[in-house]
Amino acid sequence: MTTTDKDVLDVHPDRLLPAEPGLRAIARELYHAVKDLPIISPHGHVPPQWLADDVPFTDPTSLLITPDHYINRLLHASGVSLADLGVNQPTFSAEQSRNAFRLLCQNWKAFRGTPMKFWFESELADVFGIDLVPSAGTADAIYDRIAEAIVTPEFRPRALYKRFNIEFIATTDDPADDLRHHIKLENDPTWEGKVAPTFRPDKYLEPATPAWNGLVDTLGALSGEDTGTYAGWVSAMENRRAFFKEHGAVSSDHSHRDAGMEKLDDAEAERLYAKARGGEITREEGDALRRDFMFQQARMASEDGLVMTLHPAVVRNHHTPSLELFGADVGGDIPMQVEFANALKPVLSAFGTAPNFQLVLFTIDETVYSRELAPLAGFYPSVYVGAPWWFIDEAEAIKRYRRAITGSAGFSRTSGFIDDTRAFLSIPARHDMNRRLDSGFLAELVADHRLTMDEALETAHDLVVTQPRKAFKL
Amino acid sequence: MTTTDKDVLDVHPDRLLPAEPGLRAIARELYHAVKDLPIISPHGHVPPQWLADDVPFTDPTSLLITPDHYINRLLHASGVSLADLGVNQPTFSAEQSRNAFRLLCQNWKAFRGTPMKFWFESELADVFGIDLVPSAGTADAIYDRIAEAIVTPEFRPRALYKRFNIEFIATTDDPADDLRHHIKLENDPTWEGKVAPTFRPDKYLEPATPAWNGLVDTLGALSGEDTGTYAGWVSAMENRRAFFKEHGAVSSDHSHRDAGMEKLDDAEAERLYAKARGGEITREEGDALRRDFMFQQARMASEDGLVMTLHPAVVRNHHTPSLELFGADVGGDIPMQVEFANALKPVLSAFGTAPNFQLVLFTIDETVYSRELAPLAGFYPSVYVGAPWWFIDEAEAIKRYRRAITGSAGFSRTSGFIDDTRAFLSIPARHDMNRRLDSGFLAELVADHRLTMDEALETAHDLVVTQPRKAFKL
Amino acid sequence: MTTTDKDVLDVHPDRLLPAEPGLRAIARELYHAVKDLPIISPHGHVPPQWLADDVPFTDPTSLLITPDHYINRLLHASGVSLADLGVNQPTFSAEQSRNAFRLLCQNWKAFRGTPMKFWFESELADVFGIDLVPSAGTADAIYDRIAEAIVTPEFRPRALYKRFNIEFIATTDDPADDLRHHIKLENDPTWEGKVAPTFRPDKYLEPATPAWNGLVDTLGALSGEDTGTYAGWVSAMENRRAFFKEHGAVSSDHSHRDAGMEKLDDAEAERLYAKARGGEITREEGDALRRDFMFQQARMASEDGLVMTLHPAVVRNHHTPSLELFGADVGGDIPMQVEFANALKPVLSAFGTAPNFQLVLFTIDETVYSRELAPLAGFYPSVYVGAPWWFIDEAEAIKRYRRAITGSAGFSRTSGFIDDTRAFLSIPARHDMNRRLDSGFLAELVADHRLTMDEALETAHDLVVTQPRKAFKL
């Protein structure tokens, strides 16, 4: 290819910092004070096997496109078929892989103004040292350079972990998982990092779904508990949580349609549990029992000390044909309205001031930030406001987040940044983006004399180091 | 009158561009690249007769005040009676007209910070060449100068259409309309513009309202279908849609209390239809049948290719006494909360990837932008996020719109600007306002290095030209 | 103590003004034009006894910490027990008081970015002339200097009222209150200020609560009306409203879980009233009757002319154990979603254009600003959009408020600033904060040529003087 000026990728050192020169100078100073601090990633979806086995990545598409539903979904909206991106394609040839990469590059324009552009261009420049803007004309050259890089030892997962300066990373795991990869890492004297599992029991808490009975059987078998009774289900859960904790877990993660956690009286809980085990529970009863299950999880958290994180209110698999063709988690999820104030009253009256209990509340419904989350975290010592997540882990929403919650909750009641990603190579860019944006927000508070520069410098550091450690008990 | 400095209207060339000098320079360059592009107006309420018959406007008040519910409502809130503004006054003397104009000018202060000030002052300066700030002291002079202008040939509707550089404009029309004005324009060899009808069947889709049976009778008569059965209603609708399409329609527009479109099973639909035809349907049943009707409209859209636009969730005629005295559409409508994610799941599972189907989603409830609309448009190739509308077609909300949706949906999933107005003379000012604000937003992305200037220039052009053409299949 | 640079409190004259130099220059000019105008405080919670009896404050903690739930709640979230702050402690020693102050100063970091930091540091600097940043090291010195000051005559409530340049202040009072403090002030020839009571009947309008019957008995006894019937309840209310009005009240204030006001038919209202008096009303019936009571309050307001203010939708006493230990109003309240458009349709159809009726709508749910409140106030001459309140009376939310409502409602449909506080010493800082922020917003409109400087200067003045007078009929 012959490159032109337009092909040259300019990854500016001041990107995402405020434009106004006075603010930028302050923000730059704050950002430079935190940009090289280690990455703490207490919630995410990187496969632990990558680090346990340290196998090389195979090709640019299966690394950067196929599993990344941020990329997939906007290409799909642009008219690209998910099949052509490799989604749920048991066989996908080298030529198909190259073609998928071309589809991304040809449609690069669709990503303007999105965080995917920031992350991907940062990955090209900072991880691969590639200075080409993705386009139809540059697709093959970029593909080839990535393909060449990832077969080298420097691009093995463990080498990248070190290069990315990761201090702690959590994966997300099924309660029935044997955590073999985590155990392998624990037992590997050459491994100096920290990869913690996260207990994610969603499916075991939805008694009105068809898969539930089988899952609960498995849970019983694994834990040696009789899950024929509710008491057995509780013991099995406690057993698996203890197993996870033993292998480094610091938190459990939960995502249901609503944020409810509310105790049923014992007889009603028993009755619904029996009905669910008989496969006869209704949707409404299933919701009530699930809220009781969640109350139990909170009670367990107050005892075993695993931090509880909530990611509620997403319409999963919104497009039925895509679910049928490509499976879950392919980008077809849509956020919906959420309510926390009433939903959490029972559980916070029970455990809100319990010494061992911590609850990090995430939302994709931004309306709750100033209305519910900041007021909750501004009163309960157990509650933290989680960082913007998924659809709102982008520049403008991250700015809104700090603006919405700081007045009621300050900085000390926030979780620190959460990348929540399965895109391992994007982790540095995601944390970097957030450090830039938090620096910009703090710069505003310095510039209008709400904070002194000393206060802002300390706060910038706290947001990267102290807050995630505190919120996740690291 | 003797004018003072305060009377001189200053319509600054940089108005609505960012204040910070660096941003302003970038924004100005972007704005200058698009400010003279033709106007594409794919949704609005200008009476087609104005262009078909090209008759002169009669007086300043009936042109600029009486039919404009943006102006009416804030004057009403300021204590002015709607009757004194000419609303629903079969006779309204020249003196009354002049007096209404005085009431506007005396209360001009109430419009500070609103878009009505921007539009009206732009109209005065750019359309009429008047350099007076409205006030009690200038009211008569302004009135007289407008009155003098509008009797001249330069102010006939067709002359203004040309002068405004309009390339395409859509009206909003009843399914029973004979489209005589559109047909007259079609058949007029001297007419070089494009005025398309829009199919707006709301009233025919609300089976629990008193007027419904009569409307459906009319529809049957016009289409030659037997609307005694649901099948006949469907055929009649298809027939009228085809008629509209034949005369240039590119879209159908829909406004109901919620965004629901959901198929009933056929027997239930037939049963409810029969009940409705018998005048015995309940409000709840009427809502269910209306959602089924809407599903049918979507199905038709997937076949005939008319773009479907949704403007849901307004409490119409909020003030009952005003409805009784002055009729509908006089400014007494109030937005309410809306839900899209669950409401649209059935219809998007059915038609979300259908090649011919396009759905533009408008909202006055801004909470859905980042939570639902951008995620929907960022996955479904059929869905576009509509521009801010009605109460939020103003500077600050337009800025929030881009900030709320771009992270998930980028620019390519948006509708382009929609003026949605019956105020013909404000159309250039409305499009101009939006071009200024989009230039300002893009300037921010350039200034913090999210976009290169080349990318921003192309995007600015796309937003004015490419996006409306794509979203409305022009 | 030995102070260092970090201990020196810098209260910058330009704080909270926009950072960009051009904007700041404009904002500074606007701010300087209004900063010394008198304080009008039409809604708040200062105890009238303070001004009636003019007794000295006793100690820094009971003045600045114990009763201030803004301060309490964030300290509680930071792990401090409410008991250690003196909340609901019948005896609290001098040593405990000093210790509470130390707890505040040690945790001062938690307040970064919150308005409490702005208010408290402004109080230290501007009210007490203290130039120390609160910290563990400075706590005792600050405590001592405040303790020394408040025993002097200059710090008596009436001296501060004068020094703060307060023109009007309203308290919040129970309908059964004998208003003795207000009457004492009325009859005191040496008192030149204005302290008006506010009629706050919430508890008397919740018939499903255990306390209701006793309260209604008291009301009957006080008013000489037979509250055994609904008609008697109405007469008793009218009687007490008249008593409040006679002693200077300009408004009634209302806070319930929703904003509903809707008339029942008379027989149903009588039936529910009788049931409630018999102690047998259900929660749902209680809500319906409460909405009817509220409709009655609106009807009374349209007759006696007391302005009606609404502060709805808070989950009171969210944390049951704190309620049991410390009582109500200790910081454990959490906002929740609110709906106005449908809720207010009946009452605004009845009284929305009544000449004597005025309704000021406050919200902590910001979503309703652009969607419901600005449209309502932009149509109804009786409706005003109240200033940001409680959790959102802080810099970023105040900026959002103007940005969200001005497009539909302009400035003339807003209430002016409301401090809503029981923290007497923070009143100047709260009004000052708002004047700074409104100046900043107006500066933006000048800088992008939406307003001339003359228009902005007049508007800045209106917001401080004209709007509260108009909204509260002062």
TrEMBL record, chains A, B, C:
One Pfam match: UxaC
Single GO MF annotation: glucuronate isomerase activity
Region forming the signal peptide: none
EC number: 5.3.1.12
Gene Ontology biological-process entries: D-galacturonate catabolic process; D-glucuronate catabolic process
Reaction it catalyzes: D-glucuronate = D-fructuronate
Pathway it works in: Carbohydrate metabolism; pentose and glucuronate interconversion
Domain of life: Bacteria
Segments passing through the bilayer: none
Alphabetic keyword roster: Isomerase
Top enzyme class: isomerase
Family of the protein in this entry: Belongs to the metallo-dependent hydrolases superfamily. Uronate isomerase family.
Name of the protein this chain belongs to: Uronate isomerase
Annotated organism of origin: Georgenia yuyongxinii
